[in-house]
Amino acid sequence: MKLKCLFIPVLMLVFGIQAQAQSGPGKISGMVADLQNKAIPGATIALTALKDSIQKQTRIADKNGAFEFSNLQDGTYALTITNVGFQPYRSNRLVLDSARRAIALPVVIMVPAGQNLKGITITAKRPLVEQRIDRTIVNVDAMITASGSNALEALSKSPGVIVDANDNISLNGKSGVLVLIDDRPTYMSGQDLASYLRSLPAGTIDKLELISNPPARYDASGGAVINIVLKKNRASGFNGGISIGYNQGRYGRSNDAFNINYRTPKFNLFSNLSYSLDQNYSSETFSRYFYNTDGSLNSAALQSSYYKYRSNAWNGRLGTDFFVDANTTLGFMLTGNTRPRTDLLNYNNDQYNGNMQLDSTGRGYTSGKYQARNSGVNLNMLHKFDNSGTQLSADLDYIHFYSNGDQLSPVDTYFPDSSLASGQQREFLLPSNVNIYSGKADFTHPFARKGEFDAGVKSSYVVNDNQLNWFNQGGDTFVEDYSRSNHFRYSENINSAYVNVRKAWARWGIQAGLRVENTNASGHQFSNPAIADSSFNKSYTHLFPSFYLSYKLDTTGSNTLVLSYNERIRRPGYQQLNPFLFYHDQYSYSAGNPDIVPYFNHYYELKYSYKQYISITTGYWVGNNESQSLTQASGDVFITRPANFINNRTYSLIPYFSFEPTPWWTFRINAVLLFLLNNGSAGDVVIHQKANQHEIETSDELQLSKDWSAEVDGFFPGKQAFGQSQGDKAGYNISAGIRKTILSGQGTLSVNVNDLFNKFNFGGQTIGISQVSAFSTRASDTRRIGVAFTYRFGKAANARKRNTNGSAEDEKGRTN
């Protein structure tokens, strides 16, 4: 009832506003830049109606070089752009009629006064990194070292993003990142999310939006938001592109994509098809020492392992936008992905007594075959009430995930004289089904004089059905071990609403938002001959405030301060609530924990920025009773499960600098500097941790000539530490690439090398376990050389994109 009372006024606000759309609003917009593609603020843009040559309107380009003319009648127009020190620019005829009410011009490049255009080819080159007031934009096509790679590798090369050895993604030190695709959730986390991102070629990606402190519009889950925007050409007519990439390390990989778009005045049809071959290995060592209460050594286990996987993945997307009229668009989209995968883990474990004399040796392997498929349907709508920006958007989504795995895990134990002591075989069947239903609506209404009001509602329902069927060898057959088999179903309903208001003055700006989320969850552990039936229910409601205060230190807005605060929630992943054991090797297991609960983080940040060149962010965030991986020893076996046991305080300093020592050289450096205070205890694990953590990234962009460009990147992550993980060895990654523009500017050919010196490997230890010391090392297939080819066909034009938001921004991120 409380939830209904909350939603009724919001729904009345969203759907009850009456507005009359203008009969035929026309709009012409664009941007002004110089030969280096730098914005020209203050340029004067005059719009003339050709039928009577009477000047209609004049605009001054803003700090980003952008301009817009609104409320135009049907007719033929021309633009004249002038600015001191530049030659005047005069456009061709611009026609507004019933078939085309809005014209978004390509970037207008102005030439310095006195310079001859002869022999100069003008191109609007997108910068690699763009700093916005609330996010960082990474234009993937401009990232030469990511050519022919996949989405996860492109993310790992982005400022402030770390992808650790276990494929966990963090942004500016914030873990549990919510990853979106075109503002729609991926509905995956952990290894599932990493596998999906590896199956998504970078050639399908337009840009990455890195949002460290998300506003109330976004779901409150996760420490930060990364939005992966896929390519969708908005130019009229038939357009598209193809990208082909192959790279070779110890194993070969391929990432290929085909994008196509056909746009008419009545509809827009778009599609993507991509293929990814992903292969990798990891070579790991584990050293575990177990001590008596007097500190003497009791036993030790030294293990080496080699893991290899191979995956072939296909991704597809097909959608259309129907332009009902100048103000209303209806959209429909189908998505699909299939990822068959095989893997093999071989390991050798030597057990020693307290005198470090060999007791036994275990040799085993785990081989697996897996199939993962997901499909989705999205219906969306956008209605503009007027030309000022008042609009209503809505989305309905249905997404289905299916996966199945078959693992075989034999292990033999040998005496020190190499005679067989025992043998054991296990088989695991791992079927899983996830169904997600979601719907949302967002309303936006601009105020006069740089103000805006946003409000929205969302509801999602998720059913996650997982099984683990555990079989032990009994003679010539396998017999199910019901004490370790498991069938777990988890369902969750989240209802949310938000309001957000922002207003800007000459120098001051403010934005405040409030989001409410009501969560209703239930879990059911089905009975079998050895396990009793059990279930749980949880329900909670929480408010999530967000606040941003900005101040321009000068009249041009070149120097800006932004103070921000928000609160976010970390809900457990669906699979993390599943209580039963999952087998990794003879001495390592993992499990879920139905008793873990969500926890909340408070984030405070102060950011100074100077244009696109400098930003310095200081931050502080607090998390109490955080859920982290908890590793405990049961005899000589390590069992890892999530648990609420860490209180965290983090202080951050994040500087970013961009320099142009010469017109052909751009140098960037970005750092994430953290001081962590972690305290907590659970069972025999006690954590008192103070750690300095850093990550430094450098990028050199070199425009060698009109058609040749190069890039050299450096990634220096330092020793990482959090919870029970503490790094004692840190690698680094130096990558380089060179690109040639071919085929009259429509194509590119790139060669790149990743981890040139083969130094991207790590070592660390697991701390906090009473009477246990544990160390590990890891290396994988990071040194690779690759080639990539891209080709664009059709009409090349810049146009503004309608932001089609899916209706679920959290649920996908927790299916693991």
Number of E strands: 48
Secondary-structure-derived class: mainly beta
What's the main sheet like?
A: 31 strands, mixed
Please state the average pLDDT score: 85
Coarse shape: globular
Strand % is: over 45%
Which regions are unreliable across 5 or more consecutive residues at pLDDT < 50?
A: 1-24, 117-124, 796-805, 808-813
Radius of gyration: 28 Å
Count of alpha and pi helical runs: 3
For the terminal residues, how far apart are their CA atoms?
32 Å
- Helix fraction, binned, reads under 10%
What can you see in these coordinates?
Residues 1-24, 117-124, 796-805 and 808-813 have low confidence and may be disordered. By secondary structure, the protein is mainly beta. Helices cover 4% and strands 63% of the residues. The chain has a 31-stranded mixed β-sheet that branches. It contains three helices and 48 strands.
Outline:
The protein is mainly β and 816 residues long.
